[in-house]
Structure formats: C-alpha cells, structure tokens
UniProtKB/TrEMBL annotation:
Record field: transmembrane: none
GO BP: DNA integration; DNA transposition
GO molecular function, one term: DNA binding
Protein name, per record: Transposase Tc1-like domain-containing protein
Organism lineage: Eukaryota, Metazoa, Chordata, Craniata, Vertebrata
Origin superkingdom: Eukaryota
Domain (Tc1-like transposase DDE) ranges: 79-223
InterPro entries, alphabetized: RNaseH_sf, Tc1-like_DDE_dom, Transposase_5, Transposase_Tc1-like
Pfam family, one: DDE_3
Residue span(s) of domain Transposase Tc1-like: 1-70
C-alpha cells in the first residue's frame, strides 16, 4: 500500500501515509515508513522545477532536440550564448545549508543576514562561449528593444572579437519580445549575424544558466556590508560598480568549454521528458475511458 500510494502520488507526505494506514487499522510511525521506502530505493527529494510547457512548446523542444542531437561538439563551440539575469545584492541567491547543534540556529555563524524587500538587486546581460566569457553589462532601468540593440552593439560584437570566434559563429538568445522585435531582427540581418533557432520556454537548455548559478554563488560568498543610503556599498561596491565585483568572479571561470559540451545530455533530457509527457497523457486518457 505504501509503495503504491507513493508511486501514484509522489507528493504524498509521511503523515498522509500514517493517516491512511491508521484508517486501515495499522499503526506505524513515520520512521518505519521512511525505512520502508528507503529499502525500495526511494528517498525524499525536492521536486525539480521545470518550465511550464504547452503542447506547442513540447513540440518545438522535441524538434530542436532531433535537429541537433547528432551535432558534433565543434558546432556547439561556435555558439555565443547570451541571457539576462538578476542578482540579489543582499542575502543569498541560492539555498545555503549549515551544520549546527540543536537550539543554535540564531548563532551569527548559522544565520543569513537579510534586509527588507531584498535590499536591492542588479540586472545583468552577459554572454559566453566555449572560448570564454564575454562582456557583462549592467541594465539600468527598464530594457526595451532599442536598449537591447545598443547592448548587442556595445557588448556582443566586441566580445566576439575579443574571444576570436572567427567566421561561422552563431548567436543565441531566447524569444523575448525585445529579441524577436522586427527592428531587432533587422539589426541582426544588417550585421549578418546567424541566429540559433530557439524553442520558447527553454531556459533550462541554455548552458549560460550554469554560469549564472556559479556567478551568483560566488557573489553570495562575499560578506555583505550594511547598506548605506540608496544603493548601498554591498559586496564591496557591487551596488555602485557591479562590473568591478561581479566580473571578477566571472573572469575566474575560465573552464567554460565543459558547459557548452554538455548540450547532448540536455537534448537527451528533452527526449526523456517528452516520453514522460506521452506516458502521462496516455494514462490520463486511459483513466478517462475507464471512468
């Protein structure tokens, strides 16, 4: 009963199982349930967050995977990946675990300082390829199509030259309206830039997400200072001059080629996810027919 319940409803809690068994006339503890599931190779894990996909998104991702599944690594090394991200200036950008004793949770060594409303953040645009990291640009205010094209002109093209991408390089960006606007497409055409066709709702396919995560972790490891006034002197000046504090750990990430060379694994994950969707839909239709 325990295994059947968990396999059919993975979000079931141990307390739910205890209650179900009690109603069936069996008294067990949460520990017993944990041991039973553990012996079957099941353990409690955080549910993986994935983009919300409509059928059209699934179809586009599947086509992308099939089109590029057999591409050699040399082809991915020609891609200049780009994206925007937000970095919190105070507090962590990711979960942090600490080892502590009972009732020692408020020891300063075991806490994470926070301020109201997050303490401010910065929005960054960046790019990278297998040859290294490109320029990092801070976005001030609300970015529109004109600002995005200016960012590409002042940061993308110089990055391509600095990294010596050579002829035949390919530019990647997502399907944000600013990226797909007619004026932006015309700008890319005039610059003779080849753009990688990208499926919507696919941030998990962009290897720059791994770079952003590493960057956020390294920034978060810096001891935060007390914010003063608006903007504050956080992380040793990142609030006022982010490229001084944020680019430094970014430049330390020299081994970037492995981030690009894992694309085939991502493509296999798309196919795997697609078959999970098919399996789910099949069972849904099957149950509806039974009902």
């Amino acid at each position: 009963m325990i295994l059947r319940k968990v396999r059919n409803e993975p979000r079931t809690t141990r307390q739910d199982l205890v209650n179900d068994l009690n109603r069936a006339g069996t008294t067990v503890s949460k520990k017993t349930i944990s041991n039973t599931l553990c012996r079957q190779g099941l353990k409690s894990c955080s549910a993986r967050k994935v983009p919300f996909l409509k059928p059209t998104h699934v179809k586009a991702r599947l086509k992308f995977a099939n089109d590029h599944l057999n591409d050699p690594e040399e082809e991915w090394e020609k891609v200049m990946w780009s994206d925007e991200t937000k970095i919190e200036l105070f507090g962590l950008n990711s979960t942090r675990h600490v080892w502590r004793k009972k009732n020692d949770e408020y020891n300063p060594k075991n806490t994470i300082p926070t301020v109201k409303h997050g303490g401010g953040n910065i929005i960054l645009w960046g790019c990278f390829s297998a040859k290294g990291t490109g320029r990092l640009h801070r976005i001030v205010g609300r970015m529109d199509g004109a600002m995005y094209r200016e960012i590409l002109a002042n940061n993308l093209l110089p990055s391509v030259r600095a990294l010596k991408m050579g002829r035949g390089w390919v530019f990647q960006h997502d399907n944000d309206p600013k990226h797909t606007a007619r004026a932006t497409k015309e700008w890319l055409r005039r610059k003779h830039l080849k753009v990688l066709e990208w499926p919507s709702q696919s941030p998990d396919l962009n290897p720059i997400e791994n770079l952003w995560r590493e960057l956020k972790v390294r920034v978060a490891q810096r001891q935060p200072m007390k914010p003063e006034g608006s903007g504050g002197d956080l992380y040793g000046g990142v609030g006022q001059n982010p490229c001084c504090s944020v680019c430094k750990p970014c430049q330390e990430l020299q081994e970037t080629s492995h981030l690009c060379n894992c694309k085939q694994r991502f493509l296999y994950q798309i196919l795997s996810f697609f078959f999970w969707c098919i399996k789910y839909l099949f069972h849904t239709i099957k149950w509806k027919l039974i009902i």
